[in-house]
Amino acid sequence: MAKILVVDDETNILELIKFNLEKDGHQVITATSGEEGLRLARLELPDLIILDVMLPEPDGLEVCRRLRSDRATTALPVLMISARGDTLDRVVGLEMGADDYIPKPFSPRELSARVKAALRRIKHDKPPVIVSREIKYGGITVDLEKFQVQVNGELVSFTPKEFKLLKILISHPGKVFTREQLLDRVWGFDFNVDTRTVDVHVRYVRQKIEQDPANPQYIKTVRGVGYKFSENTAK
Fold first, then answer.
1. Which stretch, 99-103, 140-144, 216-220, 231-235, has highest mean pLDDT?
2. Cα distance between residue 100 and residue 114, in whole Å
């Protein structure tokens, strides 16, 4: 059972989502405005947030941005829903840090599947127990609480997707991830991205952490399969 916060100003949609999630055994908290959603997110720290884009001020995109900029809520998974199915809206939502995006109307069965997939990724992506909440390899330090990355002592800016990609790889040194696995864990149930997106983001991450991105020391390509974080890198 998971604790799920649903934020939507349409009462009928809110009640429908709540009914179906509770039928699946989840604990559901609801909010009808962006400000109330932000308050409950900080207070309850739910396992997942389902957030409507078309909220009165602040709208869902701004709520998502604030969640990602607040240390207490920055890691909370966000599943955005919207009656606007434009590709641009989906891209903006994902770039704001949403983990998934569902256009309205959607079936209860689809919502249930998306929620299960999101919760499954949360479980899979739990890093190994690290007392300091930091992972250090060579010149890289990943702070899992502050969501910061330092390279050779210098703080380097990462987008939420880049950070998540690096966190998954560095948390499992030596483990080979296929492009499909990384796509599922980082981008989730988004039909507007493909495995080329993984390659592009790996390139971005390499540009930020590797001394020579063309001959990477940390993130290795496993030809025909995917990527791994080198287990031979000195901690």
1. 216-220
2. 8
Are the CB atoms for 106 and 18 separated by under 8 Å?
no
C-beta separation of 61 from 91 below 8 A? no
For the chain, which domains are there?
A: 3-124 (3.40.50.2300), 134-229 (1.10.10.10)
- Per-residue pLDDT of 50-107, as tens digits, reads 999 888 879 888 898 888 888 778 778 899 888 765 555 566 667 777 888 888 888 8
Model pTM score: 0.54
Count of beta carbons in the 10 Å neighbourhood of residue 54: 16
CB-based contacts of 219, cutoff 8 Å, min separation 6: 169, 202, 205, 206, 209, 210, 227, 228, 229, 230
Where is 151: in which H helix or E strand?
A: strand 148-151
| Dist. CA 124–CA 136, nearest whole Å | 21
Kindly state the tokens that stand for 107: 């079936």
pLDDT the model gives residue 130 = 44
Q: What is the pLDDT of residue 32?
A: 94
Antiparallel, parallel or unpaired: β 48-52 and 78-82: parallel
List strands edge to edge, sheet with 48-52. Answer: 27-31, 3-7, 48-52, 78-82, 100-103
In 70-140, which ranges are continuous DSSP H helix? 87-95, 108-124
Give the 3-state secondary structure of 189-214: CCCCCCHHHHHHHHHHHHHHHCCCCC
